[in-house]
Amino acid sequence: MKDILIYRLPKETSFVSKRGVFSALKEGEKPSGFVVSDFLHEQTFHFSETAELDSELDFHYGKETPVVISRRDYQIEAQAFLNSFPLLGVEKGVFSRIKQTPFSGEKAIDLFRILENSYPNAFCYLISSAEFGTWIGATPELLMNQEGMVCKTVALAGTHGENEEHDWTPKELEEHAFVVDAIKETLERNDCVEIEAEGPYVVLAGPVQHLKTDFKALLTKPNAWSIALDLHPTPAVCGTPRRNAMEAIASREMHNRELYTGFIGLFEEGNTNLFVNLRCAQLFRDKAFLYVGGGFTMDSIPDLEWEETEHKAETLMRAMKKID
After folding, report:
1. Which one of 48, 103, 179, 323 is most buried, counting C-beta atoms within 10 A?
2. Quick one: how far is CA 150 from the chain centroid?
3. Could you tell me where the beta strands, DSSP code E, fall in the chain?
4. How far is CA 259 from CA 64, 65, 219, 264, 319, in A?
């Protein structure tokens, strides 16, 4: 049974569908074409095409059921996560959870079509492999766009519900500033020049609003892959300082993030479109597991962060509800 790759780039009107094989990238190897990684890019897979996709869709499903915790357990673990910040020297950390919902995995292609029609500005995909199971998503967050020697990236952090009209709080502004500072430092560290930042401004991403700052820079050497690996995981999905935040996440999250908050997309030196894998779910035969998270600073309130993850889950939940 061959692996499946279906994707649609933001603002494109048609999608790409292929059969082939996802295989692990060797250490130090630079990919060519479609690529997907886990959270810490301990595993990165690239896709080799063997044929166009036909009407016979057979999906690979995961062997282990992801860990789902209750709201009460989330509050306990999230508070412990927050309490670890002073000890570990964390300024911001991202705490995630998994939401389970009934869904027929056989309807994955129907869900993909709804997502790509509902979220034209997102990178939408459906991938299936024995390596990692079946995943689907509609992510709004660019990790890197590269055309020639010009690269672009974004800071996307700070979240409101789509209908919330109150001012952005100091916590949300601080959360966004952490990401902006980290991206600027990374571009400078990798010898980028003419770095420009525009923002923050508010963007709507399905059922939520985010603060967004756009970055544009000029590469001085063909090192886009190295920059992508250095940018990721960004403070928007991990925290800052990065290593400290990773330690806090490892100590309190009760699940493996798998492909959630990894990167996904297309890499060619001089023509790259990579995205952070958000608003995504792992599909099983009769259920879906939605991965959602929120940024914590010392001003965070776990119960409010739970509500934020509920808002983020609506990106996929709304689409699933449209399927009979």
Report:
1. 179
2. 23
3. 3-8, 16-24, 33-37, 44-52, 92-102, 123-129, 133-139, 142-147, 150-161, 193-205, 208-218, 239-240, 263-267, 271-276, 280-283, 287-296
4. 14, 14, 28, 9, 20
If pLDDT is split at 50, 70 and 90, which confidence band does 35 have? very high
Q: Following DSSP, what letter does each residue of 301-322 receive, concatenated? A: -HHHHHHHHHHHHHHHHHHHHT
| Cα four-point dihedral sign 121, 186, 312, 62 | positive
CA dist., res. 265 & res. 80, Å (int) = 34
- Residue with the two structure tokens 């800052």: 240
pTM over 0.90: yes
Contact 84, 248 (CB under 8 A): yes
- Asked whether 44 and 160 are in contact (CB, 8 A), the reply is no
CB atoms within 10 A of CB 221: 10
pLDDT at 100 over 80: yes
Residue 324 has pLDDT above 70, yes or no: no
Quick one: CA dihedral 9, 100, 309, 228, positive or negative? Answer: negative
Distances (CA, A) of 73 to 68, 248, 300: 10, 17, 17
Nearest 10 degrees: Cα torsion 295, 298, 299, 301: 70
In this structure, how many other beta carbons lie within 10 angstroms of the beta carbon of residue 136?
26
| Tokens read off for 42 | 């301990």
Q: Give the Cβ contact number of residue 220 at 10 Å.
A: 12
Reduced to 3 states (helix: H, G, I; strand: E, B; else coil), residue 223 is coil
| Cβ atoms < 10 Å from Cβ of 51 | 9
Provide, for the chain, the percentages of residues in helix, strand and coil under a 3-state DSSP scheme, each rounded to the nearest 5: 30, 40, 35
Q: Once rounded to an integer, what is the mean pLDDT over residues 97-123?
A: 96
Query: What is the percent of the chain with per-residue pLDDT over 70, rounded to a whole number?
Result: 99
CA distance 223 to 190: 8
**Residue 35 phi, psi (nearest 5):** -145, 145
**Which own/partner pairs from 164-168 qualify as long-range (CB within 8 Å, at least 24 positions apart)?**
164/209, 168/211
